[in-house]
Write a structure and sequence with these properties.
The chain is mostly beta strands. A hairpin with a 2-residue loop joins strand 4 (53-64) and strand 5 (67-72). The chain contains 1 helix and 8 strands, in the order H-E-E-E-E-E-E-E-E.
């Protein structure tokens, strides 16, 4: 998750990680078939391409075989399948 964020945000040196939910078993659809893995939601603050702080965003990650295979910034994984970021307690990530 941290590695993916550092590779995909404009200014990785400006990333700040807040709360990260506990991992939970989850699935997503890829080409109409289910892909299973572990999901976490992370609160990430970043800067845009102009270096301006865009503030915290909640991002849902699905991890399969040690790699991020899907991310969402929406509330739905697939029709009728909502993102659940409230599963259990959250912990701070430094």
């Amino acid at each position: 998750m941290r590695s993916w964020s550092e590779q995909n945000f404009s200014h990785p040196e400006m990333l700040r990680f807040g709360h990260v939910s506990r991992p939970r078993r989850e699935w997503t659809l890829e080409h109409a078939r289910k892909v299973y893995g572990w999901s976490v939601c992370a609160m990430i603050s970043a800067s845009n391409a102009y270096g301006m702080d865009i503030g915290p965003q909640t991002i849902w990650f699905l991890i399969h075989a040690g790699k991020v295979v899907d991310i969402r910034q929406t509330h739905t994984i697939s029709p009728g399948h909502p993102v659940d970021c409230n599963d259990g307690k959250v912990r701070a990530l430094g």
